[in-house]
């Protein structure tokens, strides 16, 4: 028998009985980061492959959503801070060891670059558009000359951003459920998948939809594979990691994870996309929305579950048995 | 150089919680929060039961994940390896709270992150931390591990001891005498 009590009654708010450092803000921030990474990645890749006109929604339209989505993500991050007035401190230091730090810097680089990228397409999409100031028009013309370079930079930054949303969590050795290197690739894949979902939602072109449906199916397949590996890795690891996995294999997260994330967010859209390719009439919005919602719930569950998993004593016993 | 550490004698500690109250008073810890706490661990099968009473706090780890993950360097190593939070550098991102395997940190109601300081303000004056000096059974020893003649160095040479979850890899500097 092992029984552990805190007899002096530690009840630090936000820490006891279960850690609750992060609420809804961080998962939302991670989700938006993933969506943005997905949109930018495909926009830049298909631009470089000369598909700017064939895949107009992916290359030109979707990036227009990036600046507002990023702003929303940064707002969520800001709302999460408990010492908000000191926010600027994030940008007076660069600390490579801290994912929080390099993530914040990556966002700072992506923000202007993606805004510039999206801006160069505005005139092509809305020929009537006028930037009002001569200098902006000049800037627009100048930026257009560097699209190739911008695209390469965006691919690079999008992959970093997508991975970062997972690494932010997996860097925490203290939370066994987060402590797996699978989270980086898993969140990147999920981010790319939500990116394709955005394209599916706005595209009106049959060819483009078909391409992104196929891409999404492949990404969902990879996600399922990574999720299986995640649990295999945990089950083959130390006692605390096995405990962490059990939260999803019979424990409190079992129902919501397997039904909402895996069932509704991955298998069902996969199924719908397969049927659609086979010629059944299924509105493409359905799988797209499911993928987006599934991706959001995935972030929420993983952020929450990580905080419920721990190395030390006390509540572990009560929680599982 | 010095390396401050604490040795806590589980054979002497009676779990009176004087250290908890002393800390709260000394450091103006907000009501409802604590920087140190008492744990009672029972193990074994009746009637062969073992009881271990421990006064726990931040371990001022030598390889502290809270320092590593802090984006602003608010969490840092101060004199003698004491892990400190600079309140005016802390943005309250709570990464350090998530990173601590011992759950030793919390968000102070004023927004910054707070935790045990080994009473660095007293240590600088050559005094013991408040918890150590108030302990009625003298269960705690505070001192410098780099000084081979310090009481703590000697006691760790002679007594069996452990740290909590060493497998988390943070190199804790709070030792429990067994
Ligand atoms: S016990 Fe926790 S807060 Fe203290 S130094 Fe170690 S990791 Fe940091
Ligand atoms: S909450 Fe403060 S001390 Fe902790 S990691 Fe963030 S900035 Fe650093």
Automatic annotation (TrEMBL), chain A:
Keywords: Cell membrane, Membrane, Transmembrane, Transmembrane helix. It comes from the Bacteria. It holds the Pfam family NrfD. GO terms for cellular component: plasma membrane. It is found in: Cell membrane. The chain crosses the membrane at residues 26-49, 61-82, 102-122, 151-170, 182-203, 215-235, 255-275, 282-302. It is a multi-pass membrane protein. Belongs to the NrfD family. This is Nitrite reductase. It comes from Caldithrix abyssi.
Automatic annotation (TrEMBL), chain B:
InterPro entries: 4Fe4S_Fe-S-bd (IPR017896), 4Fe4S_Fe_S_CS (IPR017900), ET_IronSulfur_Cluster-Binding (IPR050954). GO terms for molecular function: 4 iron, 4 sulfur cluster binding; metal ion binding. Keywords: 4Fe-4S, Iron, Iron-sulfur, Metal-binding. This is 4Fe-4S dicluster domain-containing protein. Residues 4-33, 49-80, 81-110 form the 4Fe-4S ferredoxin-type domain. The lineage of its organism: Bacteria, Pseudomonadati, Calditrichota, Calditrichia, Calditrichales. The keyword Cytoplasm does not apply.
